Amino acid sequence: MDANPDVLIVGAGISGISMAAHMKMVSPGRSFAIAERRHNLGGTWDLFRYPGIRSDSDMHSFGFRFEPWIDEQSIADGKNILAYLNRVVDERGIREHIAFGHKVVSANFSTAQARWQVELEDAAGKRHRMNPRFLYLGSGYYDYDDPYDALFVGKGEFEGTIVHPQFWPEALDYKGKKVVIIGSGATAVTILPAMAKDAAHVTMLQRTPTWMGARPQKDAIANFLRKVLPEKLAYKVTRFKNIRMHNFIFKRARAKPEKVAAFLTRQTQKALGPAWSEKDFVPPYNPWEQRLCLVPDGDLFEAVKAGKASVVTDTIERFDASGIQLTSGGHLDADIIVTATGLTLTMGGKIALTLDGKPIDFAEHWFYRGCMFSNVPNFAVVFGYLNASWTLRADNTANYVCEVLNRMQALGAEIAVPALPEDHGMAEDNPYAFSSGYLERARHLMPKSAASLPWRHNMDYLADVKDFRERPVDDGVLSFEKAGGEMARAAE
User: Fold this and answer.
1) Which domains does the chain have, with CATH numbers?
2) Of 223, 225, 285, which Cα lies nearest the Cα of 260?
3) Which among 96, 143, 383, 437 has most CB atoms closer than 10 A?
4) Distance of alpha carbon 14 from alpha carbon 62, whole angstroms
5) Are the CB atoms for 246 and 57 separated by under 8 Å?
6) d(CA 312, CA 279)
7) What pTM was estimated for this model as a whole?
8) What are 262-277's pLDDT values in tens digits?
């Protein structure tokens, strides 16, 4: 691995692979390396091994914009997503740039040298040093080592098996077993129908219901277009359709929440028939105040309707030897308890980041162009959309950073930094407007956002696309400098 690349990409998941592909396409004259702490690529899709793992959005918007998704199934399982990522890596010559089993421990940006001083640790515990010009974090937004622990009373008394989806035991046998899944988010909604096929019974225990929407696992329009149009054109048309449909539904939910709530309620009631109950399937919040859960081919509804699974809305008093004692006085017998209680959000992949030896506290900096940060040089992070596919932001960010690198090269600059004076006068605004637990728990870690671009971590993909198209890279805010602080200018 090159010790002094122009760009060090951290993480060989969707974000890192997108950046590497864009480096090849948009900034081919710059060198790059990828440090991946795991021994396989794929990030989330390599880490999570729980039953039924799949995309929670369609692959025509979750896939890269530069690589068509050609499988018949629009809602894809983890195995097919990994195959897609491996195909991208191999066809584009990216694998040779990946150093597997290398964890980035710390990174300090030296203004005098205009380089990052990065310390890595390999699988054997040996430390290595790299000095890239630019640091690009594609390491995701959650802690790989420590998921959220809800600290249930009596947990040690349970005589069965407790598993967390983030660390699923490969040999877990749940055939003929009674399973209780704690949680009602996308992970729980995915696991329930998958386990219900073989378990004696699966119960999803939730504090509050989640809005769910059923859609076919196969996109009939996409599959038809692939038969009559060239592959890339069919993908482009389907992607255009799906992104705009998602955007319409989200904005409709915000503008007319009662209408969207009524529609989703009717659809769920119809799908469940006599198994439907308001208590278990109508949330106390509006659609898209938390992420809308996708139910491909109505699989969860079918499992509940068939009696293979059930949904219980209650709170936990304690665990006991045979299961869970509910606050209402009821009891759920269990052989296996799955704690799908959420993730722990983290910024910067838990890397000890410093600027000239001073720790970087993200909460003290402002988002710039959705990926860079006020007064932090040569640095970008991918933090995806909460209301759309993660890959949409990953592709936008990768393309933008490559354009920044190209502008640096044209100017002879060694440093690119979003310059924000202390007396900027901007008011902080909350761009998320989501009540999800993992966001609330991590609010204190998040960088600041203003009410408008470019100092905002925007949640509107189409608005971002327009902004990237119309706002120049050299916008008078992003400062281009040489080492030591001298301004870089184009040759006259």
Assistant:
1) 7-145+345-481 (3.50.50.60), 155-339 (3.50.50.60)
2) 285
3) 383
4) 10
5) yes
6) 9
7) 0.95
8) 999 999 999 999 999 9
